[in-house]
Amino acid sequence: MAKDLEGKVFLVTGATEGIGKSAAGSFAQRGATLVLVGRSREKSERVVKELKDASGNEKIELLLGDLSKIAETRAVADAFRAKYDRLDVLVNNAGAVFTDYKLSPDGIEMTFALNHMAYFVLTTSLLDLIKKTPKARVVSTSSHAHKVSKMDLATVVKRSGSAGFGAYGDSKLANILFTRELARRLEGSGATANCMHPGYVRTGFALNTGPIAAVFVKAAAALFARSPEKGADTIVWLATSDEAAPYNGEYFFDRKIAGTTRHAQNDDLAKGLWELSEKLSA
What we know:
About 45% of the residues lie in helices and about 15% in strands. The protein is of the alpha/beta class. α1 links the parallel β1 and β2.
């Protein structure tokens, strides 16, 4: 495989399994300098070794942090900044769905904390590096699950004691709105931001929902799910291809612009979410 990404620096969250790991493997094979963010040291170090062995690329390292916590997300950004003065590609991919209601240490419902606030805090903490790196790209994983959301900014942070798929849908709409507003703020810098739906992928996602639900998730995945490689394909395409370079602020599925709800196209809602996220992370 051509080493066409040599000299470029990639930062990837959610890279220890599933589509994140698959995308990271592609970047490593192509010679990128790769920084992975993981929560578990043992698991993350194992993945780093696997990627090095498979690619022959030694320019792969690890930053540890729990991205559901704002302080740890900022610490990851600070650790990255201490070593690198450029960021060619940021892949925001870490995420989960929590069936049981729980607040993060910052007082934010856990699904929203991990699936949206981590994207926001990490990206904005590194925004100056992104803007000064020629043709930098931000790629964020969203989902068609955004279509169930009718986000209310007044209640989305704590959700009045509810979690589950409704919270997940809100967080995935937030990913699209965040991308939309980020793209507007990147205009004129040469950097771009896009997001994507990976499809229903055979990964470890949603296996934290309890033993009974996990059985159904595994059975459905065996019958209907696509491979992590197929799910990651649009991430890799958005992050590296010349064909994707002109796009900014779009939502993709299988390398094509996909339809979204009217809420996902609401610029006032996108701006309001950004302002709310700034307050939460202040």
